[in-house]
Amino acid sequence: MDMTNKTVDIINNLPGMLYQALNDPPNFTFTFVSKGSKVLIGYTPEELVKGDIKLFNIVHPDDALILEPLHRSTLSVGLPLETTFRITTKSGKEKRIWMRSFVVDTNDEGMPCLIEGFFMDLTKQIHIETSKLANRAKIDFLTKMSHEIRTPMNTIIGMAEIGLREDMPDNIREYTYSIKKAGGKLMYVLNDILDYTNIKNDDPELFMDEYTLSSLITDVIDITKEQMVEIGAGLDFLVYANSKIPNILIGDVVKLRQIILNLLSNAVKFTDEGFISLSIDGEVDSNALDLIITVEDTGRGVKEEDFKNLYKEFAQFDDKMIEGTGLGLFITHNFVNLMGGKIEFSSMYGVGSIFTVTLSQNIRVYERLCEINNPDQKKVLIFEHREIHLNSITHAMDGFGVHYDIVETISELYTALESEYSHVFITNEMHNEFKKTYPNFQANTKFILITDPFFCLTIANILNDVDSESNQPHHTTNNENYAVIVIPQVRVLIVDDIKANLVVAKGLLKPYEMDIDLCESGAEAIEAVKSNRYDLIFMDHMMPVMNGVEAVACIRALEVKCQTDCKNVPIVALTANAAHGTWEMFYRNGFNDFLPKPIDTVKLNAIIEKWISREKQNNDVVIIDKPNFKINGIDVQRGIFLSGGRLDIYLQVVEVYYKDGLKLLGELKECIEKENIELYKIHVHALKGASATIGAVNFSKFAATLEHAAEQDDVSFIRTETPRFLIELEMLLDNISQVIIKDVDNKNTCTDELKLELELLKKAISDSDISTINECTKKLQKYLLNEDVGDIINKILINKMTGKYDIAVALINTILEA
C-alpha cells in the first residue's frame, strides 16, 4: 500500500481497523493493518503483519464456516463483500464485526491477488438494539397481558356486583363483596402497569379538559378514606384547602387525580400512627393558576441514602412487605414532568415525609373554590380539643371571614351557648357527653359533628345548608349513589365478542328493565342497527375481524340507507384500555362516550342518565330514590350501595348488625375481663367489616385501630380505648333502633296506615298515576322488615317496578283481605 505519512496518520486515527491482505485462501495474510486493531481486537499491527496470525485465525470458528465460502464466491471473482461476523480478541473476548472488503489488484492471469477492507465494531450497537428489542418485547407483553387480564376481571367483578344484588346468606354476601373488592385492587395494579408501559414507550400525552377542582378534591378524599378503612389505618386525615383559589380549571384532570392519589396512597401505606394531610393552595398569574399540592405524613420516612432512588420504578424502601407495585412515585414523577411541573420532597427517617407538587393549570372561570352565603349572618362555636384538627377548621373559617369562637370544656360550652350561635362544631365524643349532662337542651343552634376530614368544602356545605338538617348532628356522606331509573320503553344494543362480558353487561343493566339486544361482532351490530331503532349502543372496542371503531364508522354511514337515526344514536365504547387519553381517540372516531371495563355501576348509571332522552326518562319512569330516613353515625346511602342498591337487603343487614352488636357488647367486656385478646381481635375484626358494610365508616375505622392493637398485643391501649369504643357501639345501636328496629317491633300485621298506603298504590296503578306510585313506593319501603307482611311488600314493589301491575294488585288484595 503506497501512502504518504500524512495519509497513514489519518488512517491510523480512524475508528475501527483498515487492512490490506493477500488473496491467498485460506490464509488471507495481512500486509497492512491500521493502529485501530489494538483497540478493536487486541493485536498490534506488527503482530498481525509480521506474525503468524491470519484473518481466519481471529474469526469465530462457527462464523468462519460461512465466511470462507463468501470470500471465494465474491472476492475471488473480483466482487466486493459486505457482511457481519464474530471475532475472538487477543484476550478471548467475543465481538461482533461489520466488514466491507474489495479487490484492489489482480495478478498476470487477471485473478484477484490483493484485497483491502474495513472492520467496524458493532458489539455495543447490537447490544443496545437487542436491549431495545427485548425491552420493547417486555413492554408489549405487559400491555397485552394487562388487557388480557382485564377481560376475565371484568367478568369476576361484574358477576360479583350482580351477585350482591341477590338475596343471600350474610357469610356468602361477605365472600362476594371480598371478591369484588379484591378485583378492584387488581384493577389498580393493572392501571399502574398500563401507565408504566406508556411511560416506557414514550407514549403518554396530555389531554386538556375543563374540570372543577372541588369535585377532584372530593374524589381523592373519598378514595383515600376508603383505603384507610380497608387497611385499618387508625390515622387522622386532615385537609387544608384555600377557599379563594379558582375552582373551574383546564388541565389533564385524570393525570392530576392520579398524582394526588399516588401521594396519598403512599402516605397511608407507610404511616402507622399520627396523621396524613392534603393541602391544596395556589397562586394566580394572569389566566393561569400555579396549583400547589402538598401531602404530609407522620410515617416511617425515607433514609437519606435512598433519596436518589425515590422515583425509580419498582422502588421500595421499607424492610416490611408493603402492598403495591412500587410504581406510584415513578408514575407520579413522570406525570409531573410531562405536565411541566415540579415535585419536591423532604423526609426524616422515622418522623415523616412531605411531597409538594406545583403544576400550572389554566383558569376557565374566575369562580372561588367555595364561599359562604351571607357570612356576616353566621356565627360558629367550635368545640374541638385536638390541636391539629382545630387548626384545620380555623384555617377554613379564616378564609371565609365567618365569626367563630373556640371553647375547650363542657362548662365553657354551656356558658358560650348563653349567646346565640348559628352552628356548633363538636366532636362526636363531646356531643355525646353534652347530651348526657344536658339532655333537654333545646336551642335553635345546629350541632354539627366534626368528621375526618373537616375542611372548607365540608364547612361551606354546612353553613350554606346543603345536605344538613335542623338541630341534628351533620354527617358528611359519600357521593356514591345507587339510584337507577327503570325505563322499560328504552332499547339498548350491547356488542362484545366475549360472551361472558355480554352476560355481565346485561346483568348490570337488568335493574333498568330496558329491552336489551346482544351481538358478538361488529358485523352483527351493523345488521341489528339496520333492523332496529336503538336509544343507546354499548360497543366493545377490541374485537376480531371488525373492531369497535370500524363498526361505529359503518353504523354512522348507514344514515341514508335505513330508517334508524344512525348519525345521532349515542354510542358508548366499552373498553379495557384504561390508558389516559383513550377518550380523545373514541371521540375522533364517532363515539359519544366511553365506559371502562370492569364496569362501575355508578359510572354506568351516569351514562344512562346522560344519554337517554329526558322525555323517555320522565315518562313511566320509576326512580329507586334515596331512603326517606337517616341514621346518625351511618352513611345510609353508602350502605345501600354496598348492598347491591337494594334497600330491602340493606334493612335486613342492619337488623342482623343490630342483633349481633347487642350480643358483642357483653362479649367484648368479658374478653377484657379475662384478657382473651385473641377472641377480642376476632370480635373487633367482625365489627370493622360489618360496620363498613352498613356505612358506619368512622366506627369501622375505630374498630380497625383496636384490631391493630390486638395484633400487636397492646393490652394497655385496648384497656384504655375499649370503654369509649363500647359507648360508641351502644350509641350506634341506639341510633339504629330509634330509626329502624323500633318501628319494626311496633308494627302490627297490617296497620290502618299500611292499608291506606296500599289502597292509594292500588288506585294509582289503576289510574296510571306515576307520581303517586312513586310516593307510595317510598312510604312502603319502611315495612320491608315486618316479619308478617315484609315479604309480600317486597314482592309488590318488585312486580310494580317490573311493570307486572296485575300481580302487584293481586298481592295488595291478599293483605287487604287478610
Strand proportion, as a percent range, falls in 15-25%
Helix content: 40-55%
What value does the average pLDDT take?
Answer: 77
| Cα distance spanning the termini | 120 Å
Task: Give a structural overview.
With 818 residues, the chain is an alpha/beta fold. 49% of the residues lie in helices and 18% in strands. The strands form five sheets. Strands 6, 7, 8, 9, 10, 11 and 12 form a seven-stranded mixed β-sheet that branches. The protein is elongated and about 125 Å long. It starts with a helix and ends with a helix.
Q: What's a concise summary of this model?
A:
With 818 residues, the protein is an alpha/beta fold. The protein has 29 helices and 23 strands.
What is the strand and helix layout of this fold?
Layout lengths: L4 H9 L3 E6 L7 E4 L2 H6 L3 H6 L4 H4 L2 H13 L7 E8 L5 E13 L5 E10 L1 H42 L5 H31 L8 E4 H19 L4 E6 L4 E6 L1 H17 L5 E11 L2 E10 L30 H11 L3 E7 L3 E17 L10 E5 L3 H14 L2 E5 L2 H7 L6 E4 L1 H10 L8 E4 L6 H8 L21 E2 L4 E5 L3 H11 L5 E5 L2 H10 L4 E5 L7 H9 L14 E5 L6 H7 L4 E4 L4 H11 L2 H5 L3 E2 L12 H7 L4 H28 L2 H18 L2 H15 L3 H32 L5 H16 L2 H11 L9 H12 L3 H12 L2
Parallel strand pairs: 7-9, 13-14, 13-15, 15-16, 18-19, 18-20, 20-21, 21-22
Antiparallel strand pairs: 1-2, 1-5, 3-4, 4-5, 6-8, 8-12, 9-10, 10-12, 11-12, 17-23
Helix pairs in contact: 6-7, 6-15, 7-10, 8-9, 9-10, 16-17, 22-23, 22-25, 23-24, 24-25, 26-27, 26-29, 28-29
